[in-house]
Amino acid sequence: MVSQDPGVWVAALFIMMGYSIVVKDNPFYRFAERTLVGVTAGVLAVQGLENVKKLAITPLMQGEIINIVPILIGLLVFFRISRKYAYISRIPLSMMLGSGIAVGMVRSIPAEIIGQVKGLFSPIPAGATPIDYLNLVLVPLFVICTLLYFTYTKEHTGTLGILTKIGRYAIAFGLGANFGNMVMTRTNYVIRPLQIILYKWLGIKV
């Protein structure tokens, strides 16, 4: 039985309008695209204003005068509108970029570097399977060979050539696995809308 929920109807219609681009460009697709962009921009604008109110205006009204500093720095961004004084907007942008890079490094180094190194030498868990023992050998081997592959100070011949070839294969396996995961993720993006159309909207029972 076809759904009586207006929200499901709207979702199903927009999904079909979005997928209509598969046939060719058409007004229905452009309408869905512009609606998505407009709604997203509106939601982000509201969230931005709420953040300004919660993090800056409200504390300032409660007597936290120090919050006037980030408010003034944020207002400097709007000098970008002026051709004459656009250079002033570089001050807050450089501050945001610098602090963002610093925060990103603090978070990524423990997770992506130190954590990866620890993972190479993790102890074998109790009740380990033969696959666990195989991984204990292959993972460090592939990591070392991959790093050696990017060694350009010496010609890749002899033992080094064999190790770098293993590293090249390891890179290929890694890229293939990442591509497979990406395909699976994109497949889920298709399956979910189809489930809405078939099960929720048309009421098809499995």
How are the secondary structure elements laid out?
Layout: H1 6-19, H2 27-61, H3 68-75, H4 90-120, H5 130-149, H6 158-201
Helix pairs in contact: 1-2, 1-6, 5-6
Account of the protein in words:
The protein has 206 residues and is mainly α. The protein has two domains: 1-91, no CATH class; 126-206, no CATH class. The protein is 74% helix and 0% strand. The protein has helices at residues 6-19, 27-61, 68-75, 90-120, 130-149, 158-201. Helix 1 crosses helix 2, helix 1 (6-19) crosses helix 6 (158-201) and helix 5 crosses helix 6 (158-201). It starts with 5 loop residues before the first helix and ends in a 5-residue tail after the last helix. The model has no long low-confidence stretch (mean pLDDT 88).
Residue-averaged pLDDT: 88
Shape: extended
Number of β-strand runs: 0
Radius of gyration from the alpha-carbon trace, in angstroms: 27 Å
